[in-house]
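Take a look at the protein record below and flag anything odd:
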Amino acid sequence: MSKEKCLAALTGVCATLALSVALSFPVPTHAQALPAGWLAVGQPHSLKVSSATPKLPTSVTSDDGATVRITDASRVIVGGDDVIGIMEALGLGSRVFAAPESSVTLAGRKASHHFLFNRTTGAEGVLSLDGTLFVGNSLRRHAKLSETLRKTGLPSVVIDDLQPAPQKIRKTAAAFGLKTEGENLARELERQYKQAEAIAGQLPRRTRVLHISATGGGGRPTVGGKDTAAAQLIRLAGGINVGDDAKAGDYTALSNEGMVAAAPEIVLLTRSDLELFGGEAGIWRAYPALKQTPAGQNNRIWVMPDEQLKIVGVHSGAGALALASALKGLTSK
């Protein structure tokens, strides 16, 4: 099939799905053994620092341009797992007071309150949680909300999820008065990225990787587009993100014809998505054409921790290293 027909097959049935929709799905909590022949990819994350206490007050510039003064970080309402993961690494996990319903981070799951954070989230709902600080993670979803919250007196900072993880780490740390700790954390993550890039540079060829997810619109299975955390990780590790061909930024539906035309060599998904699919049988039901691809024919399904594959944050370096090493092992055979 020509490249033009391949792209047409990919995009013909694609409906870009807002990430906010995915936040409404529950996250499974029980891990399961992988089917025979599948590969668990991942490394323990090593970016822990000593438990820290916020040094307040601080005055920071939110990504929506507002200057925000922060005086109390005892009950933080957080809009995304990337920020929560950074708070955990800074020793501030116990201060996560409210988190998204589908949070995969430990502090997010243990939060006192859970909330659906999306484009329609209103200030009234956030204020009802009685937090002392709101930290959003998306200009698209949280800029207007934060502006409204500030008018009521609740300090609100947005740290946009589309920027590089080291930048997010520095900004999050600064909000809590922990610039030195944040700088150390960011530099360590940058070191991991460089190691992953070095491994990727040694690969004899680039492997086509398809990231699939169970948490699309209405529960439909989707593939990761060019702006997803998974796409960034795949590219950093030296692979080709098949979902880029769909010309979609977020998670996107894929036709059977498009699946075959994409010809992925690796299928990549998270632990929680595997459980949401219902295990191996659920994967083949959701993507019946997958068995006609090189990945399906070779039973080459790789599973990663959620925080390393779906979140651009403190775990991204460990994820990139693990994926680059796995791709090296595959292409060196």
The longest helix spans residues 179-201. Residues 1-30 have pLDDT under 50 and may be disordered. Residues 36 and 299 are 9 Å apart (CA to CA).
